[in-house]
Amino acid sequence: MIKINAIGKPIDRVDGRLKVTGAAKYAAEFNQPQMAYAFPVRSTIAKGTIAGFDKSVMEQSSGVIAVLTYENAPRLRAYDRAELLKIGGILGEQLATLQDNKIHYFGQFISVVVAATNEQARCAAALLKVTYAKEKPRIDLKTESPNGTKPEKFFGREAQVNTGKAAPLLAAAPVKIEQTYTTSTENHHPMEPLATVAVWEGADKLTLYDPTQGVLNTRGIAAYFLKLKPENVRVISPYVGGGFGSKGQWTHDLLAAMAAQVVKRPVKLVITRQMMQTNVGRRSATIQKVALATDRNGKLTVIRHHSDSSNNNLTQWFESCGILTGVLYNAPLREITHRVTNLDLGASTYMRAPGEAPGSFALESAMDEMAYEMKIDPVELRA
Asked: Is 49 strand, coil or helix?
């Protein structure tokens, strides 16, 4: 009998019973005395400016306490990435919310309604009328990708490797394939949507109940934009009901804090499933071209992997699809290139296995197609 020693020791999930019995307390469940409810209003265009708001019907709706727009919202500190990093903050999109009338993407938060109940806030938000000066948006990756740029680095790693060097080897190869693979946009949908309860103590101390994947990051962002000392911002996040990258830092925290500051009482803001598709980051769609060549014995001689993906003008993030191509499979030459196109869509950001997930799909599909072309076992090609 073969004895197998398990790696590591079993560890109890100390929070397991609390989670499965409903005893675990998530951010939206930290109700406060005299708490009000905030509901964001999203833009219905993808690019342009806000020409005006008509609040007349909405302000007559039951329970409305306040309506914040760029015209009356508290003034935030201007976005400065270098200064944010000094206090440990990284914002998913480079946007100080409700500070001007510019629209960068469909679904952008342009207002927040505060009311006595969540239902009243949501109902009133639907009654806010907005007029726009529209501009033509860029939304199609295939159409716009020729105008993209080629970033040099991705978190310190080279984003363009051996550019142009694969062509002669592919031309001379006895066996080769080249295929295009596409992947669609993917949105974050963990079991727990994002939510914040904001509580002010006086004018300079703030507590945020928030399901964050980085409490220090959330603290740094709030302190920076709201002009507070980091030690005066407390972030409470006992449980995170799934994240996948979405529970970094987005502008809903600031909306809740600003609303609570204005109405001078605790405010709860819970992101809807619809907002999860526009306001908390996403994995970009990709268009990937993969070329492979082998000798007549089925040994790889070259891999070329080009990837097109998108971001918007509020982020420098892009889907680094060529990461795994740089380390998988033993080809003497690997050409890896990335091109990134600005589109008027919600921000691209980390999502489970960023780069690796869509990149491995394209590379592994190409490997299988090459094996079929050569009529060999796909495992043999990968040896």
From this structure: strand
DSSP state of 76: P
DSSP 275-334: HHTTSS-EEPPEEEEEEEEE-TTS-EEEEEEEEEEEE-TT------TTTGGGTSS--SEE
Q: Are 308 and 287 in contact (CB under 8 A)?
A: yes
Report how many domains make up the chain: 1
Q: Tell me, what CATH number does 180's domain have?
A: 3.30.365.10
Model confidence band, residue 2 (pLDDT cutoffs 50, 70, 90):
low
Going by DSSP bridges, is the β-strand pair 205-209/153-154 parallel, antiparallel, or unpaired?
unpaired
CB 309 within 8 A of CB 284: yes
Nearest-angstrom CA–CA distance, 29 and 26: 6
Crossing angle, helix 215-225 and helix 252-263, to 10 degrees?
Answer: 50
In this predicted model, what pLDDT tens digit does every residue of 58-78 receive, in sequence order? 989 999 999 999 999 999 999
Q: What is the pTM of this model?
A: 0.92
The residue among 226, 310, 289 whose CA lies nearest residue 261 is 226
Closest CA to 343 of 107, 46, 44: 46
Does residue 86 fall inside a structural domain? no
Q: Does residue 181 belong to any structural domain of this protein?
A: yes
| Cα torsion through 122, 124, 125, 130, rounded to 10 | 160
CA distances in angstroms from 241 to 44, 206, 272, 322, listed in the order given: 29, 23, 15, 30
The two structure tokens encoding residue 108: 């952008």
Range of the domain at 341: 141-187+282-382
Confidence at 123, pLDDT banded by 50, 70, 90: very high
Check residue 355 and report its DSSP letter.
T
Coil, strand or helix: which one is 253?
helix
Residues forming beta bridges with residue 103, ordered by sequence position: 48
Residue 160 lies in a domain: yes
Tell how strand 300-311 and strand 333-342 pair up: parallel
Sign of the Cα pseudo-torsion (18, 21, 26, 31, in order): negative
Neighbour-count burial for 89-106, b at 16+ CB within 10 Å, e otherwise = bebbbbbbbbbebebbbb
Contact 292, 303 (CB under 8 A): yes
Pairing mode of beta strands 157-158, 153-154: antiparallel
The alpha-helical segments, DSSP class H, found in the chain are 16-21, 81-86, 118-127, 141-144, 166-172, 215-225, 252-263, 273-276, 356-374, 378-382
Residue the block writes with tokens 């629209």: 103
240 lies in a domain? no
